[in-house]
Amino acid sequence: MPGQSNLLIELQSVSYAYPGSKFPVLQDICLHVGKAEFISVIGPNGSGKSTLARLISGLLLPSAGRVLVDGMDTGTAETRKEIRRRVGLVLQNPDNQLVAAVVEEDVAFGPENLCLPPAEVRRRVEDAMNAVGLSQLRRRPPHMLSGGEKQRLAIAGLLALCPSCVVLDEPTSMLDPMGRQEVLQVLRHLSDSGTAVILITHHMDEAADADRVWVLGKGGVLVDDEPEAVFSRVKLLHKLGLTSTSAGDLAYRLSEQGLELPNGIVTMEDMIDYLCSVLK
Ligand SMILES: Nc1ncnc2c1ncn2[C@@H]1O[C@H](COP(=O)(O)OP(=O)(O)OP(=O)(O)O)[C@@H](O)[C@H]1O
Ligand SMILES: [Mg+2]
Asked: Full-prediction pTM beyond 0.85?
């Protein structure tokens, strides 16, 4: 667990059941997110990933337990607005989040609603467009952007609110490999420059890029560990109906054929390094 000064979000024994449902989707979850940490969340369909995203961003309140953002309880009415500003949520389909006629107006929408001085709005819009690489497309109507560009625009709209954390619920699921790469680069850059990132994804190679991975299943968090440790647990992942990364699964299949591979081969780079070392 990060030191108190580095702690951004904390889930204390959180449970959640949807209204009318007897069974909780998530039960007794304890999690923490450090400032600027990059976390990915994986889990089978229905394991509660989107529910968790809504709990963290304050859109849902726990049935039991507490979610704290910078020490503020999402259940406290007075701090709800502040929490919404600090934790931004990006959804799967960016079309639902784009509101204005051209890119820069879309990015300005949030800070304008905060009633900030015009110079401050302009500065934030410039910074946010630069951060996601959309400055050149500032006058372009959002509907003329590619999928990856639209998703980056949705992220810029949140960045203009200067959040401490962005939560993304399968933001790359509708994107081609190039668009996916664009979005991931932006997320890595965000975390490097101080914003925490929580990325929900079904793409294991994407998830392996994070600092830490949460594996959801059976109503709880089954694993909370570094990518090397998570994606080495191939049997557990298979049991949940998930896979490891491409390289992790390949290493597992080779070891099933009797080849002795070192532990912790998770990324393609790991696999290439290993193959080069033995084949040279
Ligand atoms: N609004 C709702 N009302 C009642 N039950 C819901 C609601 N939304 C989700 N659920 C149920 O809660 C459980 C968890 O759903 P959730 O959408 O959080 O899972 P998920 O891990 O995001 O799944 P997926 O991988 O399909 O996106 C599922 O059983 C789902 O049917
Ligand atoms: Mg979901």
From this structure: yes
